[in-house]
């Protein structure tokens, strides 16, 4: 798996992990802001960050990290529904897209030997298998009829016969780019070489290609509204690229136009962004496409500088805040978790061994 | 024969009430009858320009209608912030938001917050900067709440129009003393117009309902608009119609200088007035959610039930080009 990281980020990562430990809620979860309600997605991302070898992911971790991970995993295990999925938090009885991120966590947990030894429980393989089952049976959108596909084509210039994954539990809902990308990641991490070429992942990638914006990148999944182009967004583009980063295989040979265009688009977004979260998520995605298009190593270094300090070069005025004294980004456990993954030169979260 | 007539009436009532259920339909009719004898809804129309003083005309409009007191209250302003396309009239203008912040502080609000749950992207930060809204918030020291990622509160639905027993609302909205819907005046290819009621879609959190809030479309646009209106805290509306949007709204339409702000506490009446300013008459075929809301007894849409303040409607009426309808596009 091709990847780049700027290096010399151990101190940044350590401070960030300490921030995550400090901002963990009493119920074991994490929120989108410090002191906010725990959500499944934010909890999953915090755990992925804390799995880092600098944190809880080595053979003799500090008890502080180990305890935080144990509490977080207990939260996820407790919130797992009988249908295999997860709601947005413990009081949500309906399984939905947050389960994609929780599944990702269990796949990493069950593959990295240190994590298996320290944190896994006998029921975890069953949790992961049922989660996979939920994603495949309930997570996908319904396939359009031939008649509806004709109308969808006219209105949105997309192919309604290629299906993706949806946000919510409603069986009639449409698929969208971000949940499709998250589902690809959640499924593929289990066994990259096998799953990347599975029928589901291949169709999901075809879905992403079909929903790509003509100028490059992705938005929610509507490249057109009637005959007008809708612009890409940094989050849609980041998740789309992450999905391809983990699942690129020989079957994608000759079909990389959308990916190449998305890299350029995202680099422009990160360059001009005022958002710590966008810079974190965008850098995380772009690191997997070094030297593609205008995403040179110099540019990536600039993005990493911006991620850490808020400015791309020493002479630039800060556009974002960067890592703050408390070790976090944007006062957000979620944004901080993304930053840790972006900075990490260990790919345990994407290619666990 | 009498028994047959009664049976026939019940049968007709059952058929007509099917979308709601007969008990709710009966209660609804009592509400509508009651409203028929009720007072008119006050809606004010004033002229304004982004280049001039907006606070003064806004204050005039607010004082002209039966506005709620905001003394000591937590007031949440909910503008429309979707995309930044240069030269477009998509978002509520920052100058209007600034004027509203100043107005409510002047009127004694304990706290003024600006909040939005954008339907097309998770992270709204860059959009706030590009639209100029962030700069206004910073200069006035006003917090912004991203409703898509706020803490959530379970709220039982009050109307029962969208088949959901409850919805998850952002805590910021659930705890607001007064919610001000601040839409941009625009045409809309699904709903005909998007005004203060349709603007309420943005309070629904994406973290639960996705981007866009697809489940609301699947379970019915009119049903969800009216349910949100009924279930949420007390509201009022300030519509930014200074530069509005016609034709292919709500994103790709053309800017249309209507030069108005429209203010009121009955959002149905405000939207009906705005639709008429745009040249549309709410009905079962056009701006259906406004007609539906009136049918449900949520407010007044009929002209004779609206007490127009400040400028007369006829003096500001325009002919907006309607948005193409999906069925027209799909036909070709």
Structural overview:
The complex is a heterodimer of chains A (353) and B (332). Chain A has 353 residues and is mostly helical. Chain A has one domain: Glycosyltransferase (Alpha/alpha barrel). Chain A is built from 15 helices and two strands. In chain A, β1 (224-225) and β2 form a beta hairpin. In chain A, α2 (40-50) runs parallel beside α4, α11 (234-247) runs parallel beside α13 and α12 runs antiparallel to α13. Chain A is globular. With 332 residues, chain B is of the alpha/beta class. Chain B is built from 13 helices and twelve strands. Chain B has helices at 2-17, 22-36, 55-64, 94-106, 125-131, 133-140, 171-174, 206-209, 214-218, 221-231, 267-277, 288-295, 326-331, and strands at 41-47, 74-79, 111-116, 144-146, 152-156, 166-170, 178-182, 184-188, 192-194, 235-246, 254-264, 306-310. In chain B, a hairpin with a 7-residue loop joins β10 and β11 (254-264).
Can you identify the CATH class of the largest domain in chain B?
Alpha Beta
Head-to-tail CA distance between termini of chain B: 53 Å
What is the ordering of alpha helices and beta strands of chain B? HHEHEHEHHEEEHEEEHHHEEHHEH
Share of helical residues of chain A? 40-55%
**CATH level-1 class of chain A:** Mainly Alpha
Q: What is the typical, i.e. mean, pLDDT of chain B?
A: 89
- By DSSP, the count of extended strands of chain B is 12
> What order do the strands of the largest sheet of chain A run in, or round the barrel if closed?
1-2
Give the strand content of chain A: under 5%
Q: What is the beta-strand fraction of chain B?
A: 15-25%
The CATH homologous superfamily of the largest domain in chain B is named LarA, N-terminal domain
What profile does the largest beta sheet of chain B have? Answer: 10 strands, mixed
Tally of distinct domains of chain A: 1
**Largest interface, chains and sizes:** A-B, 45 and 36 residues
Discrete helix count of chain A: 15
CATH topology tier name of chain A? Glycosyltransferase
Write down the domain tally of chain B. Answer: 2
